[in-house]
Each structure stands twice: as structure tokens, then as C-alpha cells.
Amino acid sequence: MENLLISEDTNSLPPKNLSFSGHQTFPFRYTWLKKGVDAVMDNQHIFTDEDAPVTLGVGKNMVSSIRHWCITAGLIRKNKNTSNHRSEFAVTDEGQIIFAADTGKDQYLENPATLWWLHWRIATNMESAATWSWAFNFLNYPEFTRDSLSNDLIDWIKQQENIRKQPSENTIKQDISCFIRTYCLSQSPQITIIEDTFDCPLVELDLIREVQVKQGENRYQFNLDPKPSLTDSMFALAITEFWNNYYPNANTLSFSKIMYSKLSPGQVFKLDENALVMYLEKLEAVTDGTMTYDDTAGLKQISRYEKHEKLDRLELLKGVYEKSTI
């Protein structure tokens, strides 16, 4: 049953250019994002240098993967204009807030808030992480297999007239394998697979579980249970980004949009309605009255006032760490 609403503000999805590669089949590992940010701070051309594998301490394909994940998570960006025709990168404000040497709030991914932020950024980045975004926002079923996910995604891509380049079936399958290993700790007895999967820190979020291994077919399920490590301040940051990206001129936002719209907190964090209400009820305290939740007369919505312009997302990101405990 269709349970995702497409609002008038998000019906232009997906973008024309969707990427189903770039990660070289590797989910990111605990040290990779920090390595990428540090390397770019030291050398803006690091990802085109021949000695990048030595500098980063990884293989050549992993260098490309580190670059992909740092860009996808919004930690670094590629500069558009370079005078010497070499790819040039810069660390974003978010990358500096989290990973900068000496001042970074969570340089070694010890705070679950960082993992939720990384997940939020990846699962809402349709252009660079198409399978991740599609699975969390467009998939209509809580349970799936690799084959069903592949077939449904391929069918969906074929229906999108504005997608410029259709990926091959093999590319889709490799992307899905990387997607599952990003979130799910395999129950397979093969040690190498477990080690590869565990290397990705987003496994800690417990968003996807392997629920059955039968006749060679692994089944997976989105975890819709409460998310105790998802803090109120992290949720407020996600709401702010969602609101600013898709409803910048609106002073109110309905419960249904927050719960069911593509790229919404309800979908990306896999919350049920009760959990979402709990987060919405705390928005006023978390945002110092900038946002309020109202469910009177059966009309569930949040409102924000003129002073919402003072609610800077970078300050909210810093606040996530000030208000959280490890």
C-alpha cells in the first residue's frame, strides 16, 4: 500500500542526474571521513595527487570512496572554478564543525548524534546516493530482499522520464549491496562479510535488520521502533533543513508532510506516528519557542515565527553536541 505522500513542493523529485556508483562498493568506515576532511584541509588537490593512497593510508579505490562519502555527506565540496584544471576541494562549514583538528565536536564518531546527522545527509542526497535516498523515501514496504529491492528500484527508474542516464542492472545490484552493508550487520557466518559490514558506523543506528535467512535468501526489515539515540536537537535540525529546503515560505507545516513526504524526517528516520508526535511536542523547548506544535481541533501542525530566521542550521548543528551526552 502506498504510504508516502508527494507534496507539491517535492514532486520535482528525482533530480535529472542520479548516481548509483562512486563509492567503489565500499561503505565508509570509522576513520575515513576524518581522514578526508584532514587531507583536504592540508591539500585542496589531494584527491588528484598520485600519492593520495599513501597520504590517506588506503588503496586507490578507497581514495575514491573516501572522496565520494565526504562529498555525499556534505563534509567537503568540489570547487567549480580552478585555474590549473585540477580538481580542487574545500571543507564545508559542517565538515569543520565536526572533524576539524582541535576544534571538531566529534572527530572520531563517538557521539551517536553525528551518525544520525550523517545518515540524514546521505539519505536525503538523491543525486549522490540514489539507492540510499530511494530506499528510505520511496520504498513502500518495510521488508525486502536484495532481489526485490533491485527489481523495484529498476522499475521505478524506468518510469522516471527526467533521469538522463539509466544505470545497468549490475550497477544497481552493486549499489544495493553497498547500501545494505552500510546499515545492516549481517548474520552470515562468513567472517569477512561481518567485518566488512561492521566497518560502517551507521550500523550502530539499527535502522535495518536482517530478519530471516532461509534457502539462501536474506530478508531485511526497516526498524520502526523508537530511536533512543536520536536526540531532540538532532530532530530539530532535520526539521529545519527539511522546512528550509522544501517549504521556505511557509509558516506552518502539517504533520502529514513531516511524517510522509519524500525526504522528510518521518521517512528518513523511520519513525512511527507516536514517536514523531513525541519529537514535535519537544520542538518548542529545543528551539526556544521558534517552533511550536499544535494538535487542537484535530489539526496537527507545527508553526514557526518570524524569529525563525535566527535559527541558523550551523548553530543548530553545534547545539546538537552541546545538548547531547555521550
Protein model, in words:
- The protein has 326 residues and is mostly helical.
- It folds into three domains: 122 residues, no CATH class; 78 residues, Arc Repressor Mutant, subunit A (Orthogonal Bundle), CATH 1.10.10.10; 91 residues, Winged helix-like DNA-binding domain superfamily/Winged helix DNA-binding domain (Arc Repressor Mutant, subunit A).
- The chain is 43% helix and 10% strand.
- It contains 15 helices and eight strands.
- It has a three-stranded antiparallel beta sheet with strand order 3-5-4. It has a three-stranded antiparallel beta sheet with strand order 6-8-7.
- Strand 4 and strand 5 form a beta hairpin.
- Helix 1 crosses helix 3, helix 7 crosses helix 8 and helix 10 runs antiparallel to helix 15.
- The N terminus is likely disordered.
Number of beta-strand segments: 8
Measured between the Cα atoms of the first and last residue, the distance is 39 Å
User: If you average the pLDDT, what whole number results?
Assistant: 88
The helix/strand series, from N terminus to C terminus, equals: HHHEEHHHEHHHEEHEHHHHEEH
Low-pLDDT segments:
1-9, 191-198
Radius of gyration: 20 Å
Lateral strand order in the biggest sheet: 3-5-4
Structural shape: globular
Helix content: 40-55%
Q: What structural class is derived from the secondary structure elements?
A: mainly alpha
Which band does the percent of strand residues land in? 5-15%
Number of helices: 15
Q: Please outline the major beta sheet.
A: 3 strands, antiparallel
Number of separate structural domains? 3
